[in-house]
Amino acid sequence: MELQQNFSQFQAQGIKLFAVSYDPVETLAAFSNLHGIQYPLLSDRGSEVIKRFGILNTLVKPEETEHYGIPYPGSYLAGEDGRVAAKYFHREYQVREAGPTALRSGFHVPVDPSSFAHAESSEDGVDVAVELAAKELRFMQRVDLYVTFSLAQGLHVYGPSAPDGYIATEVTVSGPEGLRVGQAEFPPTKPFRVEGLPEVFQVLEGRPVVRVPLVIGVRGVPSVALKATVRYQACDDRQCFLPKTKEFPMDLPVGQMVRGQ
C-alpha cells in the first residue's frame, strides 16, 4: 500500500523516478542534456527515496564512497492508477531490461516481430515463432527470447516434463562466451489423459509462449550469433507425430554502451 501511495504521489507531481545519490543534480543534468530527456528526474539526496522503497544496495559498503547509497538496479512498471504491474531487480548494477522486453513481459504490450530479430517454422500443424525483444544487443542488457507455438485444433505438445518414453518440450539457447541464459519459463500446463493409459500428461495447447531471459555479457564486437533450439512432440487424442528438433540461428547487432546508464 505504501509503495502504491508513493508512486501515486510522484505521478501526481509529474515526476518519473530515476534515483541516484552521488552528485545528484549535476549528474542528472548532464545525463538529461546528453539524451534530450524532457520529463523531470528525481534527485535523491541522501538516498531517502531509495531507502523508503527498500532497495538500498547493501552489497555496496559505506567506505565505497563513490557508489554507496545506490539502489539495486531495477525498474518498477506502474500503470496509470499508480499500481505496480511488474518489477525487475538485479544484483549487478550494470544489468538493465531492454525497453521492448519490459513492455512485453511486464505490461504484455504486443510487439511487432517484424521490428525485431525473429524466425519461424511450420510443420504438421505446429507453427513455431522465435522472437527476441530487442533491435540490437547491449553489454549487460537483459532481453527476453520468446518461443510461440501455434497449435492446430486438437493438437498439443508436452510441457517441460513428461513420463518416460515421451518427449518433453525443451527450449535452449546457445551463443558466444559471455552470454548468460536463464531458465526457460513455461506457461501453465493442463492435465490430459488418453483412454486406456494410466499416465496423466501435462500438456500445452492453443498458443503457448515460452520465455527465456538472456543477459549479454559481450562487447567490442559488431554482432553476436545466437541459436535457439526447440524440441517438441505434437500429439492429438489418437496419435503422436515424430519428435521434432528445430534450430533458429540469429545474427544480432551489438550496440554501443550508453554512458550514465
Report on this structure:
The structure is a single chain. This protein is 14% helix and 33% strand. The protein has 4 helices and 15 strands. Strands 3, 4, 5, 6, 9 and 12 form a 6-stranded mixed beta sheet that branches. It has a 4-stranded antiparallel beta sheet with strand order 10-11-7-14, with no helix packed on it. Strand 10 and strand 11 form a beta hairpin. It is elongated, with a radius of gyration of 22 Å. It starts with a helix and ends in an 8-residue tail after the last strand. Mean pLDDT is 82; it is low at 1-7 and 17-21.
Report the top-level CATH class of the largest domain. Answer: Mainly Beta
Average predicted confidence as pLDDT: 82
Count of discrete domains:
2
Distance between the termini: 29 Å
Fold-level CATH name of the largest domain: Immunoglobulin-like
Helix content: 10-25%
Count of alpha/pi helices: 4
Quickly give the structural class: alpha+beta
Global Rg: 22 Å
Give the overall silhouette: elongated
Largest sheet: 6 strands, mixed
Q: Give the DSSP E fraction (strand runs of 2 or more residues).
A: 25-35%
Low-confidence stretches: 1-7, 17-21
Report the strand count: 15
Could you give the order of the helices and strands?
HHHEEEHEEEEEEEEEEEE
Question: What is the CATH superfamily label of the largest domain?
Answer: Thiol:disulfide interchange protein DsbD, N-terminal domain
Tell me the CATH architecture of the largest domain: Sandwich
